[in-house]
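We examine the record.

___
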Amino acid sequence: MLLALAAAIAGTGFLYVLTRNIRDSRERAARRANFLDDVQTLFSGGLKKVSADGFPRLSGTYRGLTFDIQVVPDTLNFRKLPSLWLLVTLPEPLPVRATFDLMMRPRGVELFSKHTDLPVQMAADPAFPHDCSVRTDAPEFLPPRQLLLKHKAILENPYAKELLISPKGLRIVWLAEEANRGNYLLFRDSEMGLSPFPSANAKPLLDYLIDLREDLTTRLETER
């Protein structure tokens, strides 16, 4: 009788823990899926799609241009804390003839980037921030140096990771979040994205890409 009672109590406890874990897991999944909801308020006609990893991808129109914003978790690099990257892309064609890719603090394991696929490694301009890598596919056709330097200040922000200029458009990669150091070191808990990314943090990135695009378009079309 006592054994049956103990088994019943244990079974009830197991079901309670299981139910709570399922509920907590669903809640965390819903919060991850809403990570870009505040950013979406900047857009008109914004569309959101949740990827297989549970994080959203967003597209919408801002200041008359269509942007794509993707959230990419990086939990495979064991030499640093797991990171959540924000890929802000302005996929509007540009009158440039080369791809310019500047990667801050390169480690060669940036899964969100094709930086290492570009064939030419260039010496970084001394005026660029320290610890960056510059690669291209056509050094002779890069945008003018002064134009690039005009827009370099944002790269000095420790959250900035990559700036990509290509004929297909522009992209800036931003560190949105890192896993909690204590939880990760003790429990290998890499949970991220439970609080929405603020629209106030995303707006300067959108404006930056628009300003860069306007300068590139005006300067390069004038030189034709």
Observations:
- The helical segments are 2-33, 37-40, 145-150, 181-187, 199-223.
- The chain has one domain: 34-223.
